[in-house]
Design a protein that fits this description.
404 residues; alpha/beta; Peroxisomal Thiolase, Chain A, domain 1; eleven-stranded mixed beta sheet; two-stranded antiparallel ribbon; 15 strands; 19% strand
């Protein structure tokens, strides 16, 4: 494969608080359906806020036929289910993906956090040590590879809430360099009590709902989910007659080098990632039709992201639609940018962009077109998807409509 050969998306798998499976997730997202509910594990918690993006009806055995999959940690179960969905959606048969150098790159924030929480609660009472084998985070992509017979590159990328975009970008590199034939890329995280307590201690959790870019925004809601995309060269996809959703045009990464949790007030890392992405994709800022925002609903993030979008898109910034699906599904941590990538691809395929729900009061410091409360049909040709994480990790991915 030559370095300039196009990389395309041929399969999508998604599990989110507002929908299990691609069709349910996409339909509910464009219709503004929220997946936020009372979290079952918080029924007896002392904190008043018990809301989050838990997926109580997820059961891995309903979605995959893999022996012992119930023994895996929840993050691995979510990853395996999303991977299976994506491969099925791509039209590849097991014999085909197993014969190729098919790899998997997974992003995560917390890894198998629920296993860690379980050890803390139950080990003194004699819990079996058997589940320890699935705790190390590298077991997430490892068990996906072992369960599905994947023999290409396998790796975990723990760059917090930008990890899904990092995974997609690095998978892009594997394919363009000829080191893999097909890649699964995305991210996963289970609902985490550790994350809930940590963000609560930072006063960063909303008491009711997530309101990205709203003047009265008050924080995030902890959620869980998974999304994986099947990536391959256009040449290979066309040769096998695959349905092609979109082209992965390029990606960029950057770092704030500023603070463990807070974004640089001038958005330096996000600007660097966006500029690198545009350069990688050979796309002009004037060609960007829609921005899938990181949009967490915190005061600092949304203000900074507004500055980033304005820096990247210049005079067009206020005219380009920018929306955040975290308003509906909360913050799915390592799965966040992967789910947002799925939305970006579907927006290109269908011509519809999702809304930012819960938006009531405009903020003069976030004066973008945030697609308030109702989806919009704009038929985008180029979509930019942003992700910014703790530690200053920033990653932007650019998708382009496929013209055949």
């Amino acid at each position: 494969m030559t370095h300039n050969e196009a990389i395309v998306i041929t399969g999508l798998g998604a599990i989110a608080p507002n929908g299990i499976g691609l069709d349910a997730f996409w339909e509910n997202t464009v219709n503004g359906v929220s997946g936020i509910r009372d979290v079952t594990s918080l029924v007896h918690a002392k904190r008043e806020n018990k809301r989050g993006g838990e997926i109580p009806d997820f059961k891995v055995t309903d979605l995959v036929e893999i022996p012992d999959s119930e023994a895996f940690g929840r993050a691995t179960q979510l990853s395996l289910a999303a991977a299976t969905m994506a491969l099925k959606d791509s039209g590849l048969e097991p014999a085909e993906w197993q014969a190729m150098r098919t790899g998997v790159y997974l992003g995560t924030t917390m890894g198998e956090s629920q296993l860690a929480e379980s050890f803390n609660r139950h080990f003194p009472e004699g819990q079996s040590e058997a589940s320890l084998r699935y705790y190390p985070s590298n077991m997430m992509p490892a068990m996906v590879s072992i369960s599905l017979g994947l023999k290409g590159p396998s790796g975990l990328i723990p760059t917090a809430c930008a990890a899904g975009n990092y995974a997609i970008g690095y998978a892009f590199d594997m394919l363009q360099s000829g080191r893999a034939d097909c890649m699964l890329a995305g991210g996963a995280d289970p609902w985490s009590l550790i994350a809930y307590e940590g963000f609560s201690a930072m006063f960063a959790i909303s008491p009711d709902c997530c309101r990205p870019f709203d003047r009265d925004r008050s924080g995030i809601l902890i959620s869980e989910g998974a999304a994986l995309l099947v990536l391959e060269s256009e040449k290979r996809a066309r040769a096998r007659g695959a349905r092609i959703y979109a082209r992965l045009a390029g990606y960029g990464i950057g770092a704030d080098g500023y603070h463990m949790t807070g974004p640089h007030p001038e958005g330096r890392g996000g600007i660097q990632a966006g500029r690198n992405a545009l350069r990688s994709a050979r796309i002009s800022p004037d060609e960007v039709d829609y921005v899938s925002a990181h949009g967490t609903g915190t005061q600092a993030n949304d203000k900074t992201e507004t500055l980033i979008v304005k820096s990247l898109l210049g005079d067009r910034a206020k005219r380009v639609p920018v929306s955040s699906i975290k308003s509906m599904i909360g913050h799915t941590m390592g799965a966040a940018s992967a789910l947002e990538a799925v939305v970006s691809v579907k927006a290109l395929e269908t011509g519809v962009i999702p809304p930012t729900v819960n938006f009531q009061n405009p903020d003069p410091e976030c004066d973008l077109d945030v697609v308030p409360n109702v989806a919009r049909r704009i038929h985008p040709e180029v979509v930019m998807s942003n992700s910014f994480a703790f530690g200053g990790n920033c990653a932007t991915v650019i998708f382009q409509k496929y013209g055949g």
